Amino acid sequence: MKHLLSIEDLSAAQIHHLLELTDHMVEVSSRPIPKVPALRGKNVVSLFFEDSTRTRTSFDTAAKRLSADTMNFAISSSSVNKGESLRDTIETISAMGVDAFVVRHKSSGAPQMITRWTNASIVNAGD
Fold this sequence. Notes:
Layout: H1 12-29, E1 43-48, H2 53-65, E2 69-73, H3 86-94, E3 100-104, H4 110-114, E4 121-124
Parallel strand pairs: 1-2, 1-3, 3-4
């Protein structure tokens, strides 16, 4: 699966598989070093246009437990505040070798739109 935009896009088999992975990750969480190498060498950017402590922290923790290199994009200190478009932001960050974006945006459909502007995987963290 390239993107995770909506649970409605998943088959029953895919949902079942994700639940099985969840059971495995519960076991991983209890280890002294709670990590697996699933995303080792991959770059994941959290791109939150809305504040959300629990959601951001949950996705960051998950990416780190999967051994991804993570970057939190701070909207407040970016060119978005100067009027940079969502597309320009995505294309600029994508050029840095991003493998996946975790996106939370106030506009419905924003994560789906982003899939057209990057080859990176998109995970919808709320729209």
